[in-house]
Amino acid sequence: EHEDTGLLLQPLLEGQNYGAAAADGTQCPSVSVSRNNPAKRDCLVVAVLCFGNLINFIDWFIVPGILLDIQKYFGLSDGKTGLLQTVFTLCYMLAAPIFGYLGDRYNRKIILGAGIFFWSGVTLGSSFITESHYRIFVLSRGLVGIGSASYSTIAPTIIADLFEEGKRTTVLSIFYIFIPVGSGCGYMLAAGMARSTGDWHWAFRVTPCMGGLALLLLILLVPHRIQRKTAAHRALSISGTIQRADEKPDVHRTAKTTWCQDVGSLVKNCSFVCSSLGLTAMAFVTGALGMWMPLFLYRAQAVQGIVPPCLQESCNSSNSLIFGGITIGTGILGIIAGAEAARRLRKKNNKADPLICATSMFISALCLYIALMVAQMNILSTFIFIAFGELFLSVNWAVVTDILLYVVTPRRQSTAIALQILVSHLLGDAGSPYLIGVISNAIQAKNIPSLQWSFRSMQYSFIICAFVGVFGGSFFLLTSFYIEEDRKEAQR
C-alpha cells in the first residue's frame, strides 16, 4: 500500500486521525494516545506552533533592537541601514508562495522542521560576520527570511485544520499573540545581550538554541501526518472521482493545474483582495515602526538633551527595551481585545470583522500622527501615543487571518496565505524601512548636519505611515461590502 511519508501527495483515504494504521491493522502508541485524548493532542500541537512563532518573530526583530550598534559597526547611512530589513522581507515574501504551493500538497511537518533548522543555522552563522563583510551580513538576513516564510505560511493552516470556526478565532488569537510577544522579546533580547556582553553579536547566538528546542518538540509532539480538509477536494480535482490510496496520479501536471486555478479564483474574491490590501497597509506601518522607532526615540531624546550622542562602544539601548515592552503589552492586549470584539459583534452584525479592522486602523493612524508631532516636546507623551497606535494595530492580526479562512475555500488556504504574504510584504514592509531611510537621507542632505535635522528627517519621513494607515482602514471598510457574499460562496 502506498503511504505518504515524505514529499508525496496525500491520498484521499489517508487516516481520519493524525496517524495511519499499519498494514497488519495495528497502530503505533502515539496514534492510540491521539485517539484517546484528541483535545490534549491538539493543545500540544498548538503549543509547539506557538513556540515556533515566538522564535520566528524574535529573529525578525533582533536587528532593530540593536540598530544603533549595527549602524555604527558597519558605518551605515539611514538608507543602507533600512536595506537590512528590506532584504529580509523581500526574501521572505518571495519564498512564501513556494512554501504555500508545497504546504497545500506535501507533508507540512517536514517543511516546518526544515525551515526552523535552516533559519536557526543562518542566524548563528551571522553572529561571526566582521565589519568588512557587510554584504554577507545582508545576505544572511535574506536567508533567515526564507526560513521564516516556511513557518508563517504553513503553521496557520494546521490550526485551521485542527479547529472549527467557533474555536478557530480564539486559537488563532493565541497563535498571533506571539507576533508582538516575539517582536518585543526580539528588541529586549538584542538590547539586553548587547548591554550585558558589550558585544551585539551575542544577540544572534540565543535564538539558534531556542530553534533547536523547537525542532525537537516538533519531532516529538507533532504527528507526522495532519488531517487535511483539502484532501477530498484535491482527489476530485485530480480525476473527478474518489481516488484509491494506492493510485499514483501525475503529480506535477495536477499540481500545476491546481495552482493556476487557485490563483485565478483568489483574484476574483473581492473580500480576499480588499482585506489583503488592508493588511498591506498594516505591514507598511508596522515594518517602518519596527525598524526605526527605537532610533527615532533616541534622536528625539538627543535633541531634548535627555541622552548624549552615541559615541561609546555599546549605544544606549533603553529605548529598545521600553519599545519592546510596549510591543509585548499592547500586542497581547490588542489581539485579545480584537478577538473578543469580533466574537461578540459577529452575533449582531455579519460585517463586524472588517468594520473592526477599519476602525482600529483609523484610530491607529491618528495616534501615530500625534506621537510624531509631540516627540520633540514631550517624550512621555510620545511613548503613550505610540503605545495606543500599536494597540489598535494589534487588534487586527487574528481578525484579518480569520477573514481569509472563512472567505477562501479550505483547499486554497495555504495558497491564499502565501499570496497575502507576498502582496502585503511586497507593497508593505519590504519597502517601508528602506523608503523611510532614503527619505531621511534626502532631507538630511539638503540641510546642515545636526542633531536637530537628524531628528526632523526621521520625523518627516514617518508622517507617510499615518497616511498609509488611513488607506488601510479604507480598504477594510471596502471589504465589508463583499464579506457576506464571499463567505457564502466559500461555504458552498
Could you walk me through the main structural features you see in this protein, from its secondary elements to its overall organization?
With 492 residues, the chain is an all-alpha fold. The chain folds into 2 domains: 37-225, Up-down Bundle (Growth Hormone, Chain: A), CATH 1.20.1250; 262-491, Up-down Bundle (Growth Hormone, Chain: A). 76% of the residues lie in helices and 0% in strands. It has 20 helices and no strands. The protein has helices spanning 29-36, 38-60, 62-65, 67-74, 78-103, 108-126, 134-162, 165-197, 207-221, 231-239, 251-267, 270-304, 318-345, 352-374, 379-394, 397-407, 413-429, 432-445, 451-479, 483-491. Helix 1 (29-36) packs across helix 2 (38-60), helix 5 packs antiparallel against helix 18 (432-445) and helix 12 (270-304) runs antiparallel to helix 19 (451-479). Residues 1-35 and 230-257 have low confidence and may be disordered.
